[in-house]
Amino acid sequence: MDAFTRFTNQTQGRDRLFRATQYTCMLLRYLLEPKAGKEKVVMKLKKLESSVSTGRKWFRLGNVVQAIQATEQSIHATDLVPRLCLTLANLNRVIYFICDTILWVRSVGLTSGINKEKWRTRAAHHYYYSLLLSLVRDLYEISLQMKRVTCDRAKKEKSASQDPLWFSVAEEETEWLQSFLLLLFRSLKQHPPLLLDTVKNLCDILNPLDQLGIYKSNPGIIGLGGLVSSIAGMITVAYPQMKLKTR
Question: Where is the chain membrane-spanning (predicted)?
Answer without folding.
Answer: 220-239
